Amino acid sequence: MNNKFHTYCKYLLASGMVSSVISCSNTRFLKEGQMLYTGAEVKIENDTISKQEKKDLQAGLEGNLRPKPNSTFLGLRPKLYFYNIAKEPKKDKGFNYWLKYKVGEKPVLLGDVDREFNKDIIENYSENKGYFNAKATYDTVAKNKKAKVIYTVRPGARYLIDGVKFQKDSTVVNQEIQNLTDRTLLKNGNPFDLDVIKSERERIDNRLKERGFYYFHPDNIIVQADSTVSKNHKVELNVKLKDNTPDLSTQQFSIDKVIVFPTYNIQDVKDGKYSIPMDKDSLSKYAFDDIYVIDPQHKFKPKIFDRALYFKKGDLYNRSNHNLTLNRLISLGVFKFVKNEFIVSDSLSHKFDAYYLLTPRQVQSLRLEALGRTNSANYAGSELNLNWTHRNFFKGAEQFKAAIFGAFDFQMGGAQDANNIFRAGGNVQLSIPRIVAPFRFHSSSEFVPRTNITLGYEFQNRTKYYTLNNFTGSFGYIWKENARKEHDLKVIDITLVSPANVTEEYRAKSAKNPAMQRIVDKQLIFGPTYSYTYTNTMLPKTNTIYYKGTLDLAGNITGLVTGANAKKDKQKEIFGIPFSQYVKIENDFRFYHKFTEKSSLATRFIGGIAYPYGNSEFIPFSKQFFSGGSNSIRAFRARTLGPGSFDPRTIDPGTYFDQSGDVKLELNAEYRANLYKFLNAAVFVDAGNIWLLRDDSTRPGAKFSKDFLNEIAVGAGVGLRLDFSILILRLDLAMPLRVPYYEKGDRWAFDRINFGDSNWRKDNLVLNIAIGYPF
């Protein structure tokens, strides 16, 4: 007890000394007469308002005061300290410049504070929040070359709304405003608040934009406050149009002609006019239904614009259809720039023409990628990809992609050369910007739905073991409800795995291991798959989430119709191959919390289960779950963890075998911080495992049971990320903290950590090199 107390005292003493050194160091750099500004405090003297109102007012006032003092950490100002100790650089680069102006922070002095200006801010802000008679004073408290400013405000009673009037007359615009009063933000009994008044003006403007008032603006509305008609600190509001509101702003406009330039170029416009003749006779030859598509070279089918445009001739203008149309044109993926103009064509009838000026992207592109890689399974290798894209394949904004690739991976270490891998293949995809189906499908989303057709082939050779021919094909749809919600339905998703050249060596190794044998069995997998994705990570929020749920149904209807039952020796075949029948569900949930602009916390949970039935007793190897590696639990090499408490050290070291499972649980947490420009650091913890649904005599401890929590693996580590915008190179160094295949009661590995032991480092430190973030 005395030792602990002694240690605690030493810690407090050391902390105090460090704080004192840094604090004194910051003030000793000040010149004669200078004082370090440590911040401001606002005191509110008022006994008539509630504690919550006082708290809100104080927070709002302090948030508006300028300047802000130097940033602090645990009561210290380390950034200011680095600024002070760094020498003045001779150039705008180098270590001193980086330390002083990138890491460091210039001192904020009392002389930088305009106290009269802040006093005016306090009084104005208070009045904007309904405290009409607010008065403020200030005082400066200085000690040891440090100073803070104390502002005292006497806000008086807060004025409340007592009646809201909207201008009434026979004009169209005011009649429309009258129809919007039932949802007004200005409520009787609420405090007067200028921010709410501004929101009310924007609300009216937004609703009028939906009713044809294209040229209206929030500034056209004035809200007059009258405090003389009521007593007891009440105010009456009068909402009306300004007297100088332009006539154009008060008129409802409808669409006359809709004109599309799908091959627009800035050179087509001279002196503000289009070089292409726009008279009625010239336009007639470009007519398609109610729109005009100015495409003399017929590069695009006009019907794609008929589906994308939400304005038709005679429609009343509204902002929703305006934005919807622009977003759908962008999501076609074939235009680099999308511009829209409305030009008055009949001022008496209040009509304008809608012009869509579309600049095409490069129709075809060819990209060659050469990648070198090393992964945590001791594999090194390279990959070569050649990708060709055509963005207007049938002149209907169809995207056709074709790719061929070749790759090889070799296991580092001569004794394991039998595990070298060679892969080659290709795939094609046709993406059609509409739903191709025997039924009508209408989408009002701002994103164009797509029908995707894919075909692929991969040749995979594991030297001295086997060769696999993988054929894939799918037909399905992708559509978005909005920017946050996406659906991906593959009506049919087919995989055919055909083995070849299985060596006697592999057959001998797999004779006693059914799981290894299933890898080289012929596999036919077909059925629908569906995934739903929700994300708001693109929003500037402190907390954001990402969720993806996937449902994979293989052979379900076929198995039901044929009466397939593998357990009762009634396994059915198609073309001599038993088809797989299973249900697989996987959930991926991520939560992100932003501490500052340069630091955040990222977490992820993965939970999945695959259940075989009917025509299958086991899940196909390619559809099972795997654990370990650079995007999973990084303290364990790729696909070597699990299942359950199975000990992979019992496997013949000369045998290559990925560990797979039917159940997966995984949890990851990672703190991320920016160190300097492109250099980021991370500290992470990973936990999880995979399991089987059935006993496997060759892998004892692999079955999922009520004891699964005792079989969770835990790893932790640190990482560096080089973020070059177009490429993120990630290096993560991890070590195991809990190993599920150790003896029960001895699975935590803290007492085994020994960084000074080279053998321990070799066996436990795992370096993951990867592209992109793990989640």
Automatic annotation (TrEMBL):
Organism lineage: Bacteria, Pseudomonadati, Bacteroidota, Flavobacteriia, Flavobacteriales
Compartments where found: Membrane
Gene3D superfamilies from the UniProt entry: membrane protein fhac, membrane protein fhac: a member of the omp85/tpsb transporter family
Keywords for this protein: Cell outer membrane, Membrane, Signal, Transmembrane
Organism field: Chryseobacterium pennipullorum
GO annotations of cellular component type: outer membrane
Residue stretches making up the Bacterial surface antigen (D15) domain: 459-750
Protein name: Bacterial surface antigen (D15) domain-containing protein
